[in-house]
Amino acid sequence: MPPAPPLLLRALSALSLLLAIVPAHAQTAEDGIMLSRQKFCTGVFFSYDTWDHYWEGTLNRVNGNIGTVTTRTLSWTGNYAVNDRLNLLVTTPYVYTNASQGVLHGQAGFQDVSLAAKFKTLSVPVRQFGALRLITVLYGALPMTNYTPDLQPLSLGTHSKRIGGRGTLNLLGKRGLYVNGTTAYTFRGNVTLDRSSYFTNDQLYLSNQVAMPNLFEFGASAGYRHNDLTLIGNFTQQQTRGGGDIRRQDMPFVSNRVNFSKAGVTLTYPLPHIHDLQYWFIYSNTFDGRNVGQSNTYTTGLLYTFNFEKRARP
Amino acid sequence: MTPVQFFRTTALFLLAVFITNCGKDISPTEQLAPLTPAVADANAGTWKMIVLSGPTQIPVPTPAAVTDPTYVAELTSIHSAQATLTDDQKANITYWSAGGVLRWNEILRELVARADLPPAPNDDGTYPVPSAANPFAYPTYPFSNPPYAARAYSYVSVAQYDALKAAWYYKFLYNRASPSKVSSSIQSLMPTTGIPSYPSEDAVEAGVNLALLKLLFPTNADEITQHANDQQQAALLSGRAAPSEIAAGIALGQAVAAIFTTRAGSDGMKNAIGTPAIWQSLADTATARGEIAWKSQDGPPRPPMLPVFGQVKAWMLTPANIIAERPAPPPSTGSSQMQTEVTEVRDTVNNLTRDQLATVYKWADGVSTVTPPGHWNAIAVPYIEAASFSEVRAARAFALLNMAMHDAAIGCWDAKYFYFNPRPSQMSPDIKVMTGLPNFPAYVSGHSDFSAAGADVLSYLFPSQAAYFSSQMQEAAMSRLYAGIHYRSDIMAGLSQGKRIGDYTVRFAASDGAN
Fold this sequence. Notes:
The complex is a heterodimer of chains A (314) and B (515).
Chain A: H1 6-21, E1 39-51, E2 54-56, E3 59-61, E4 69-81, E5 86-99, E6 108-110, E7 112-126, E8 130-143, E9 162-173, E10 177-188, E11 191-192, E12 198-200, E13 203-205, E14 209-210, E15 215-226, E16 229-240, E17 259-270, E18 277-290, E19 296-307
Antiparallel strand pairs in A: 1-4, 1-19, 2-3, 4-5, 5-6, 5-7, 7-8, 8-9, 9-10, 10-15, 11-14, 12-13, 15-16, 16-17, 17-18, 18-19
Chain B: H1 3-21, H2 69-83, H3 87-96, H4 100-115, H5 146-174, H6 179-182, H7 201-216, H8 221-237, H9 243-265, H10 276-288, H11 319-324, H12 336-349, H13 354-362, H14 371-386, H15 391-419, H16 424-427, H17 446-461, H18 466-482, H19 488-510
Helix pairs in contact in B: 3-8, 4-5, 4-7, 4-14, 4-15, 5-7, 5-9, 5-14, 5-15, 7-8, 7-9, 13-18, 14-15, 14-17, 15-17, 15-19, 17-18, 17-19, 18-19
């Protein structure tokens, strides 16, 4: 066998260094981090989302009939690494909604189970610096219960089946630089209402079926990530590819054109003395939007990783 | 197959299934078959009028003879227009061939839903009022709330019905056959009806609806005009009516609409909103009786919805009849029965089944909807369509239905403001509701009143379906208890009042000459 060219050697050594810093934990379908094989990472998140201002179409306002709308979400989540290239993720949220003013009844119940398959499609070493990876994700969501989508903004969700694809480009440096860019497109199935007609987008529809516009999303993150300690800043924008605006003083409707821009931070921290347990904190603020609450969202959670691999990695 | 390959294949399959299933077109309009009337109703010119003094109150001149050169030229123009029909024109003919009465009812429901939004509050916590004199300024005119809508549905339906009876009188007086029958060179692109075509019933409908819809929903004038033009064009291009038959129909329709416009200007609607002094006196009167007075729970508190609507002119009831049909008082707000009813509301709304919640949303009919009267119009549509009623008989069905519901609205609003009874969520602030809380007193339930009146008339018109209409009425009424916005006694008294008021219209129908 001829000697390996020096370039390939360098690449392989970079790759082995990279493998050494692949984190034990990864969670979301949006990030560029893969869980390594035969591991199962699971945990519980609690999210507290609150807004009193919202965009009625493009008009930012408050509403004395709802006051502050609070959505609390308790989620179980799991991520199983079939191998180093494929992770399967599942999340089941239980949602509570509440309005601080007015007489509308808050809602509570299981919302939509989401499933995702996350593939490490490409991984390229960047000299001695780190690695650039392309992650692709196929995901879908199904309503878990027969909750109503017709009491926006207090409904648990939109009750729409969804399927979509995501591409994420991630640069992870050996010294902890983390840069992530992601984009996604979600197809949404028709929603069935309990009523036989509805008015939206300046038209009366004589049907109980509501066509749901699709969603386009992109985001960018940057920060520090090393040895399971993460501190990154995030930006996300969602654009709904159709749908009507909330009219003046109208209730929101399930197929409204919901657009938003959010910014925030993510912190993950490996708890001292407890091996494989990781604490998460996420904050995000909706600073611009359309037909959506100007919300602050605080998420906190704990994730534990089980390692099923019997033998040591080569 | 590796797990990855398996997963990719499955995912692609799911994606393909999903894409083929989603993006299904949702047709905004009703899918209605072309109308071939089962009966021509040749005697409809003798049926009892409601507002007109008789079928000849508006004169319709004798048409020219079929040999007259101007009429012959009209036939030639139809023939040549039919030779170059565009796809849009063909689609327009198909749309209107379902019958203009059904189509205009569909259009009216859309206008109601579009205008069914309360004004947003001013910064100082007061509310602006829509102005008929300046309809395009915010808040646009009108706010088509349930009483406004009940009245609108009734005006359009009754005017159209009286105008079509007059049209039928002249049709069978002059017996002018349709262009497609007079001239073999003209195709009949709508079902032939055997009904004489002078004056054109399509044009009569277009004339009535053009004038009254513009009066009631002035900001939609362009769209309304377009529909009226489309209907006339469909009648012409389908070979059903010649230009002179359409012109006579438009003139008749507009003249009848003018009579109803005058009535609408003096029926009391202008004063229905009341004044701050009236609003205060309603509360004071209830308090003086020792009752807890209704309070707005909107944020900020909003003046009550149309507190003087109970004095608007009814179709079948005199003001004395309205007072006679006023229900007995609700349970006193201090009574133990009231406490029992409040408890029932709380227990119900906090322990709803999914079926009950579905009933709440099926019947919510709140903002941006066709309102409860519109919902009952929608319920009537498939039965009117299936019966293949002539246009004049279809107009009768909608007129009877909407007169009864308008009158029920008046009786209901009279009771609401006479008693000024608080909602369950005012009596007990821990009661939260499942749909928008209407901004007017509780007793009696409007849904129950409208639905009992509507079901009463529809059961008279379609007796074999009475059980179905009754089940819908019960569902609509009980949906308000499930939603947490009405006590059981509101519902029971509303159902009873709606039936009694509906009976006035049913008694009229039994002797109107159409049976």
